[in-house]
Write a structure and sequence with these properties.
The structure is a single chain. This protein is of the alpha+beta class. It has one domain: Up-down Bundle (Outer membrane efflux proteins (OEP)), CATH 1.20.1600.10. Helices cover 63% and strands 14% of the residues. It contains nine helices and four strands, in the order H-H-H-E-E-H-H-H-H-E-E-H-H. It has a four-stranded antiparallel β-sheet, with no helix packed on it. It is rod-shaped, with a radius of gyration of 42 Å.
Length: 438
């Protein structure tokens, strides 16, 4: 007996049994760029970095050129030591004058620190954007994989219905019905597991976007691979090394350490201190006056006004700031080595990403043009043969398993290509930092 009434259903399932394509969403869909913008707006780490940069920039603007002058007031009296007529009052003002451009070098160090903090902020923004794009892609792929499993479950249920009808007609042994039922149960289990995986991926995306607990995630836009071709590898490498966030940060740290070295060398030069003082002294002394031919003792009181100028400079005999110079000189040399190490690591990372991206695109093209259509056609042939009673259930399930593996490989190729492109975008994007803002 041949069962043919399920042919339209089988053909429909075979057509649905493919990686879901791009569907038009009826609700406003959340794109990867929208998710990145929301994550930037709600990230507390980025807000903390912006506050730090603002403080450094304000510090550079408020840094004075000279140290504060020193005002000295002095008063003395001899009342407590038996000399009540002895007393003095003095006032002095001193100013330290550096003989090297210390203030400008300090400003250069603070500005270098502010620029390093700005580059650190940009690197964190790029890293966060990459995380959000990957999380968004993982959630979108999880949704596609769930739709794929639902189609597989529909096909498994259809095969089970046909198997039961053929068994009832005596055209199929019972163990093949059990195989079909077992396959359906496995599909239902995989579908439930994928549903949990989709919820986990959506929760991770919502966490990165800064959504409140319990706030629903908007529907995701369909995952679409970028259409614009990449330039040559040489151009990408040169562009990537020019804008790689880690390498740019290492270069700025080198400039900061070199500015710090210039500062400590300037601080080794002694500063001149200029002082201006005024002193009022009152005193008395014994004196004798001629009065009627007799000398009579008396007291002569005097008041003196004294104005003085004082210059002082430390003598660098024991310390010329050698310890600090040696320490900062070591940091500057270490920064040069770190720049070279970061350049090599950046070049290797870019080459690996380009290789993975191009390989994933090649694999994806092979799946979509050859492996996918051939696997789909083979499955339809086996379904038709099973419908005609020419093959058993195990043959159809084996072909279904091979087609499922091909579709899983296609989804993995999509994920690899998307993740690689996202990372490349984060390394090559020169417009991550908001213009005019830290």
């Amino acid at each position: 007996m041949r069962i043919i009434r399920h042919a339209p259903t089988l053909i429909l399932c075979a057509c649905l049994f493919t990686v879901p394509g791009l569907a038009q969403a009826t609700e406003p869909a959340l794109t990867a760029d929208m998710a990145v913008a929301q994550a930037w707006a709600h990230s507390p780490e980025l807000s903390a970095d912006r506050e730090e940069i603002t403080g450094l920039e304000q510090a550079a603007g408020h840094l004075p050129l000279l140290a504060n002058p020193v005002l000295e007031l002095e008063g003395t009296t001899g009342s407590l030591t038996g000399s009540p007529d002895e007393r003095s009052v003095g006032i002095a003002l001193s100013q330290e004058l550096p003989l090297a451009a210390i203030a400008s070098r300090r400003k250069a160090v603070i500005r270098a620190e502010a620029e390093a903090a700005r580059l650190q902020l940009e690197a964190r923004k790029r890293s966060l954007a990459d995380q959000v794009r990957r999380a968004w892609g993982a959630a979108a792929l999880a949704s596609q994989r769930l739709e794929l499993l639902r189609n597989q479950t529909m096909l498994a249920e259809t095969l089970l219905v046909i198997a039961r009808e053929r068994f009832a007609a005596g055209d199929l042994p019972e163990f093949e019905v059990q195989l079909a039922d077992l396959d359906r149960q496995r599909q239902l289990l995989r579908q439930a597991e994928q549903q949990a995986e989709l919820i986990r991926a959506q929760r991770q995306l919502a966490l990165l976007m800064g959504l409140a607990d319990g706030q629903p995630l908007p529907p995701l836009a369909p995952l679409a691979m970028p259409q614009q071709p990449l330039p040559s590898d040489e151009h990408l490498l040169s562009d990537g090394l020019a804008h790689h966030p880690d390498l740019a940060l290492r270069r700025q740290e080198q400039q900061r350490d070199e500015a710090a070295l210039a500062l400590v060398r300037a601080e080794a030069i002694p500063s001149l201190t200029v002082g201006l003082a005024y002193r009022n002294e009152r005193s008395s002394q014994n004196s004798y006056q001629l009065n009627g031919g007799l000398l009579t003792p008396g007291t002569e009181r005097t008041t003196d006004h004294i104005l003085g100028l004082k210059l002082s400079i430390p003598l660098p005999l024991f310390s010329r700031n050698q310890a600090e110079i040696s320490k900062v000189h070591g940091l500057a040399n270490a920064s040069r080595h770190r720049v070279e190490s970061a350049r090599r690591a950046a070049a290797a990372e870019l080459r690996d990403l380009l290789a993975h991206y191009r390989l994933a695109l090649t694999a994806l093209e092979l799946h979509r043009t050859t492996l996918g259509p051939v696997g789909r056609e083979n499955l339809q042939i086996q379904q038709e043969a099973f419908k005609q009673g020419e093959v058993g259930m195990q043959t159809v399930l084996d072909e279904k398993r091979r087609f499922t593996e091909q579709q899983e490989s296609e989804l993995n190729a999509i994920k690899t290509a998307y993740d690689s492109y996202s990372r490349l975008q984060s390394l090559l994007d020169t417009h991550t930092t908001e213009r005019g803002k830290p």
